[in-house]
């Protein structure tokens, strides 16, 4: 049940229950406890504390009380010392060696590494699903011709499969980026105050090794008192790029859902569109994606600001990271969930694509005529271009079919027969290397998903 004090909608409105549980306060405490216990075991294995501590700690059931921890933190004014105090009451003899030589961020940063490892597994799984759905749609609509648009204006014919193949490529690149940043950010930090491992004498590297082996993490190569914050900044920037790609696809669907276009649309059968206008069918899921992308992009600045800190550390990063990291992960989780839902239920309107393709009465094929005049008939490009621009604008201003204007033009008649014109003006004859390009995009995606 939600508390009356719930403020942030990420606690109840957005994101999956699995991501929410992973980022919960209780789970973060559990992760910090697991780091403290692993450190105890690492110290014992390295020979710095009695080895029988291992048996005394193994099998212990630790009571995780967020209320008690919060009370202790209010009294002590220090989160990790509150945790150490609470743990000490439960570890018996082993408690006298708890947290020895460690600094707070050994626990906090390593706990974040454990959480990020699981969080990125969730993100990658959903991004992979999204890419695979798109790949199916690409093949399904590989040959469905529609108008391509630049500057919001009709350009040249493409296919829906080609349009979506571009997103397959972009999202595959994000998948690749996430896998790359994961190597740099999912690392443990066990190095003590200022990062020199001095408290562990000559056993520091062993303590680090044994502790992180228990946790299943690789260590940072070197650190100050905290893990380097460029990793968090890179991760949040990488997820912001993914958010912007999702925003781009959402915007495309929103634009193509306009009643005057209506080539693609969200499924809205069971949804209220407006509280007062019964006819409304709004792209609210895509609008949610676009709205959340704005928030996620804004978090990049804070993550970058957290890289420069005083000397071996200060605390200016700490408070903002409590907001930035969980919000980034919850937002991207929601955005992926939403886009997967949209694509699984995507409405496609081939008849409207056909109608819109003919909206300008064929002038969108002017380039095809120009290319034929230049390559096949030997006319200078600038002459052909200027003449086709004149004829296209004439067709638009007079509201006539482009083919009619062309057939009645002296220069065109001199070089192209009516039969040739008909073939040139057919959109399906001017799709270039679309199939090969689609295949390249799909092959790239398959290679990324197979390799990473």
What can you see in these coordinates?
The chain is elongated. 63% of the residues lie in helices and 5% in strands. Strands 1-2 form a two-stranded antiparallel sheet. It has a two-stranded parallel ribbon with strand order 3-4. Helix 4 packs across helix 5 (79-91) and helix 7 packs antiparallel against helix 9. The protein contains 18 helices and 6 strands. The model has no long low-confidence stretch (mean pLDDT 95). The protein starts with 16 loop residues before the first helix and ends with a helix. The longest helix has 37 residues, at 104-140. With 452 residues, the protein is mainly alpha-helical. The protein folds into 2 domains: 13-354, Fumarase C, Chain A, domain 2 (Up-down Bundle); 363-424, Ribonucleotide Reductase Protein R1, domain 1.
List low-confidence stretches. Answer: none
* Residue share in β-strands: under 5%
Which fold name corresponds to the CATH topology of the largest domain?
Answer: Fumarase C, Chain A, domain 2
Domain tally: 2
State the helical fraction.
55-70%
Mean pLDDT across every amino acid position: 95
CATH homology-level superfamily of the largest domain: Fumarase/aspartase (Central domain)
